[in-house]
Amino acid sequence: MKLILTPSIGMVNFPASELTNYKTTLLNKSGVYAIYNPVNGKYYIGSSVNLWYRIRKYGQISNITRSPHRPINKAIVKYGFNNLIIIILEFHPSPSRTLFIYSSF
Hints:
The chain has a single domain (7-104), classed as GIY-YIG endonuclease, CATH 3.40.1440.10. It is built from five helices and four strands, in the order βαββαααβα. Strands 1-4-2-3 form a four-stranded antiparallel beta sheet. The longest helix has 10 residues, at 95-104. The chain is globular. By secondary structure, the chain is of the alpha+beta class. The chain starts with 11 loop residues before the first strand and ends with a helix. It has helices at 23-26, 51-58, 61-66, 71-79, 95-104, and strands at residues 12-15, 30-37, 42-48, 85-92.
């Protein structure tokens, strides 16, 4: 089964190159996110209790070199972090429920 999402379905979506413009929107917020690669149409779905911290780490070299085998890191190396689109699928006020919500996507 192929997951079909469009960047417009998320509550917030923006190019990864504009991540710093969304710091106040994402800082200390929990939720579910997708990272979309418009070149090959693939998605990486994840969740975090601090969306700003988690998504920002994807663009850091130390994160990529620590886990180069992860599919998202391979895509970042191949296509560049700034060429991806970040989609916030859902914010959640309760960090303890974020994992439960993530499992429903």
